[in-house]
Specification:
Length: 201
């Protein structure tokens, strides 16, 4: 019986250790559901689903740090799902608030290219690149802007002040997005060069 209990406990611990990754993946479906509700006129439900997606980001990070459930897969998938939610959020602002499409495309291009670069580094034998200070600042600004946009679209659609804050946040997000991408490439260029040299050698 004690052996069986030990097996059950080990299996339970293994399942729980993957909980942050499960939460990260759930953000994709929550954000898609949120966009669906917004597009179909159920703005309150859309805002709630996006809010759940943002909360899952906080929760998976907290659990991973609190219980040391940190994995290489988690380091990779967490920023990818964050980017997915952010891009859906900006696409929603484009649809509902007339945010210029070129801003959405520039942000999307940066996120896709930097994600591809991260994957290339891993393929070349490097470590998963965690987000730095400017990357975290960029993500924070993006999510705050989208959160304000959700409040505007879901609950305060007549607030000119909130609309102005959201549009200002979009431009600040763009600046931080491009700047953080430049900083990352600048400081990671040496690492990428070393990886190429090692691979060719």
């Amino acid at each position: 019986m004690s052996y069986l209990k030990c097996i059950i406990r080990v299996n339970s611990d293994m399942v729980l250790s993957h909980l942050p990754n499960i939460l990260s993946l759930s953000r994709i479906f929550l954000a898609i559901a949120g966009l669906y509700f917004f597009v179909n006129g159920a703005s309150v439900y859309g805002a709630l689903f996006f809010a759940l997606a943002f909360f899952s980001d906080f929760l998976d990070g907290f659990l991973a740090r609190r219980f040391d459930w940190i994995s290489e897969f988690g380091k990779l998938i967490d920023p990818i799902t964050d980017k997915f939610v952010v891009l859906l959020g900006f696409f929603l602002l484009y649809l509902k608030m007339d945010i210029p499409i070129w801003i959405v495309l520039l942000i999307a291009a940066r996120e896709v290219l930097l994600t591809a670069y991260r994957l290339w580094v891993i393929q070349m034998g490097g470590e998963v690149i965690p987000a730095g200070f400017w990357g975290k600042a960029k993500t924070t600004m993006q999510m705050l802007t989208i959160a304000m946009g959700l409040l505007y679209l879901g609950f305060f659609g007549s607030s000119y002040l909130l609309e102005t804050i959201v549009k200002l946040g979009v431009y600040l997000s763009l600046v931080l997005t491009l700047f953080s991408g430049f900083i990352m490439l600048k400081y990671r260029y040496g690492q990428g060069k070393d990886l190429r040299d090692n691979k060719s050698g």
